[in-house]
Please model this.
Amino acid sequence: MVLLAAGYLFGCVNSSIILTTLLEKKDVRDFGSGNAGFTNTLRNFRLRTAILVFAGDALKAAAALTLAVVFAKGNSLALFGAGVGVILGHNFPFVHKFKGGKGVLVSCVALFFADWRMGIAVLLLAVAVMLITGYVSLGSLTGAVLLPVLTVALHRGDMLFLAFSLVVAGLSVYTHRENIKRLRGGTEHRFRKRSESK
Model:
């Protein structure tokens, strides 16, 4: 519980809100999707700012999980708790009226700490789907769906790991619920337009 709470507090440090306010003199939540995360920052602000947001969010997740590794060596429950905590803090930060990001990047970091093989597999598939379709959200959702499947394949019988993967996947699907509606309605934003064949 202590590491879950610590992870949540780390997650509440929202790099997108902080850096767009400091560097752009604007609030990322007033632009685009209103999401306080890396993707919305990249779409609406300078590349430098987006890169710094990416680094900041990755580092805060890594810090929370490293804390769990150092102080709870070999304790999977503590590691998973810290991972879920940092995702919750990023998605629902109490210091920003519970309006944060979608947790994709911090979820990836948590997954790499839990099992780097699964982290690589999910990342590669998600990026491939993003590049093929042009939809960041579809790549993220594909990775979320793949996570429990890989858990069953690689961690058969490990109910704690399965619970962790289901929570992480569930949070990702929940934060992308509006994207799912837009995908179904054909109105979702692409990061690039697919070339039209003549």
In short: Confidence is low (pLDDT under 50) at residues 193-198. The radius of gyration is 17 Å. The CA atoms of residues 15 and 145 lie 27 Å apart.
